[in-house]
Design a protein that fits this description.
The strands form five sheets. An eight-stranded antiparallel β-sheet has the order 3-2-4-1-10-9-11-15. Strands 5-6-7-8-12-13-14 form a seven-stranded antiparallel β-sheet, covered by helices on one side. Helix content is about 35%, strand content about 20%. The longest helix has 22 residues, at about 425-445. By secondary structure, it is α/β, with parallel strands linked by helices.
Amino acid sequence: MCGIFGYVGNKPARKILIDGLRTLEYRGYDSAGIFTPRGGVIQAVGPIAALEECLLVDDSSVAGIAHTRWATHGAPTLANAHPHHDATESIWIVHNGIIENYQELKEELAADGVTFYSDTDTEVLAKLIGRQRADTLQAAVVVALARVRGTYGLVAMHVDRPDELIVARMGSPIVLGVGSGEHFVSSDPAALLPHTKTVLYLEDGEVAVVSASACNISTLDGVHRQKATETIVGEAAQLQKQGFAHFMLKEIHEAPEVIENAIRGRLMAEEGTVKLGGIEPYLEVFSKLDRLTIVGCGSAYYAGLVGKYLLEEYAGLPVEVELASEYRYKRNYHLGNTAVLAVSQSGETADTLAAVRKAKAAGILTLGIVNVVGSSVARETDAGIYTHAGPEVAVASTKAFLSQITVFALLAILLGRQRQLSAENGKELIQALTELPQSIQKTLALSSYIAEIAKKYAHTRNMMFIGRTFHAPLAYEGALKLKEVSYLHAEGYAGGELKHGSIAMLDAEFPIVTLVPQDAVYEKMLANISEVQARSAPVIAIGTEGDTLLPKTVDDVILVPKVHEMLQPIISAIPLQLLAYHVGVAKGLNVDRPRNLAKSVTVE
């Protein structure tokens, strides 16, 4: 989850390192630090701004490494902040991942007289590298890593070789940026956009020796690798707030553009179908699928639940949705022709990637729905679909979640046309997708109104969310968003489950958000509202325009445009995102950087 950044080149390194960390701060903000050959090590507890306040002395170094931490081993303290060093303070490293056998290695080193100053697994790795008898830092790193069990994205420097970085990867993302007389190292390609769009991706088990002029890659076994450079997509301006108070609000307001990007070039209106080039070679296989298993974590898992409803309703394809963190550890029975579809914004989610690898090991066709081009899930699945949502900086997923549902809608149309969906119905759905951005824009205009509702409930201690069919997963997602950015206790349920236990919690101090579009289960949801009101719980309802009954029935109502039932969850998600955002703001919290969280969960 931590963010690492490295630079070696012909420019002052410190500013480049700090700017890189600022972009990567979503990956962790418990502490931060940098090391440069002339400036030494500088560390601080808290966000990158705290580190910047410590940079009092000029530093002309043209190389260095930097780190922003999400705490795993050891509390967020100065002693535990990266970079860490070996016993002689000659070798400095930054690390993202978890060394599973660090305690065993630590005891072995301690018995040999090595002392430790931190609680981290990374210091153990630094000391282990420093104890190796090798002619070069690269050789020492390779020998040390042979003793390690776990995951790492690693960058190391030796004070005697200030013009060289040693980079290694196993399970944690690493991308190398190629410039003119300079190279960069990053946990995320987005952080490279201000400097270069030309990159090299390290694979698991690879190590690179990086200087200003060269980048030599080999395996841990010493086999040289010749890699072709790739071009990343995006603009540095996407990483700025562009006038919005927070990245989260900016990204919510990017929803219309996100939908347009997700469907651009993919709609075949005259045929009533869509074109998804990334999975086209497997269309014949899809037509014969007996079952699809979707795996994901957090918001991606909830997007998968929406996808299940879409694919079963419109494509007639049986679907099961699994938490990737559970799928990877349990026995899975794949009957008949089965495929596994992994959903991940970053494409680096450790549990999701492990689920993909487990499916591949079982000989199952693997697919991906990811946002980040060149990410691990994108590279390791057999085929996939990019969401094209652009960089998402706020920790709480908003636009990426909407893009994932949009891609599921596209997939439902494509597979539906193979199986049961008529051309006429396909054209209807495509027209609805085309009109969706305009309806989203109307929904976003409700932001100020939702902010007033948020202030009314900002200081409650509990909140519940309920919905049915397509909107049941939206209830789970709404509760998650509120928990993430406001720290309120929130729970999401399918509306029909309310009376099976959870209704016991409700009273006048326990407001409930109800998702009540005018669809096939509208009257069922009204019945749920009556049950809630009989227990004196305040009701906030999200309904659709033209509903004259709902405003007379509940305490607060948010009416959004009515669109095709298939796409209504996308519209309904936006007021849930805005409600969470405005509650967090009303409580004076940093909604972009919630406590204890990080954007890309690359540890297990």
